[in-house]
Specification:
The protein is of the alpha+beta class. The chain is 38% helix and 26% strand. It is globular, with a radius of gyration of 24 Å.
């Protein structure tokens, strides 16, 4: 066999070895982020615009308030007849389970009202107390609330009725990471079990 043929065969064997090594490592190269049943994890956490509101203790709630731990935030109002109380109840139940299982993890829940005329700090404190006294209820001026909702693409619209008014609004759960950036969104239509499992997915896989 000529020297040229030997070199040619060696090159082929080297190429085959390289391809074999590549395909062996392919699963790890294609490994994806964990997925959620009830929503999605953003490809890259999103910083949000500066905002300033107040909580039920009349303390400032702003971008800094979202830092240092995981924050789960929902937009609603205390006179909401359906999705708001149901979602707050689910979040309270989930938080209780996570606190027992992951006691060292900081996990905060927040309700931001879309109805500052009726939802004063005192009203929010009373309302949230029925579900979870550790939850934050947040209100503010119309302008500041609208600015905050706009940064998260939250839709809401007042619907006038003879006996008063309600709101049509985005019913999403927003999850912020420890840097205060939007990390994931979830649907409150999912069951407590499904939502809880998704929170475990996030808390066990991400810092």
């Amino acid at each position: 066999m000529s020297k040229r043929n030997i070199i040619f065969i060696l090159l082929i064997l080297t190429g085959i070895t390289g391809l074999f090594t590549y395909f062996q490592s392919l699963p790890s190269l294609l490994e994806k982020k964990p997925t959620l049943v009830s929503g999605k994890i953003l490809a890259r956490p999103m910083e949000i615009d500066r905002f300033e509101l107040i909580d039920q203790k009349n303390e400032v709630f702003n971008n800094k308030s979202l830092e240092g731990g995981w924050t789960v935030l929902f937009f609603g109002y205390t006179n909401c007849p359906d999705v708001c109380p149901t979602t707050i109840y689910k979040l309270a139940e989930i938080k209780n389970e996570l606190k027992e299982d992951l006691s060292s993890t900081s996990f905060n829940t927040v309700l931001v009202t879309l109805d500052p005329d009726r939802d004063s700090a005192d009203r929010l404190k009373e309302y949230i107390g029925y579900f979870d006294e550790s939850m934050l209820g947040v209100t503010g001026t119309y302008e500041n609330i609208q600015s905050f909702t706009s940064s998260l693409s939250v839709f809401y619209q007042r619907i006038n009725k003879e006996e008063g008014y309600d709101f049509n609004h985005t019913a999403s759960i927003f999850v912020f990471n420890k840097d205060g950036s939007l990390f994931a969104t979830m649907s409150p239509a999912n069951t407590i079990g499904e939502l809880t499992q998704d929170f475990y997915t996030i808390l066990n896989n991400f810092e």
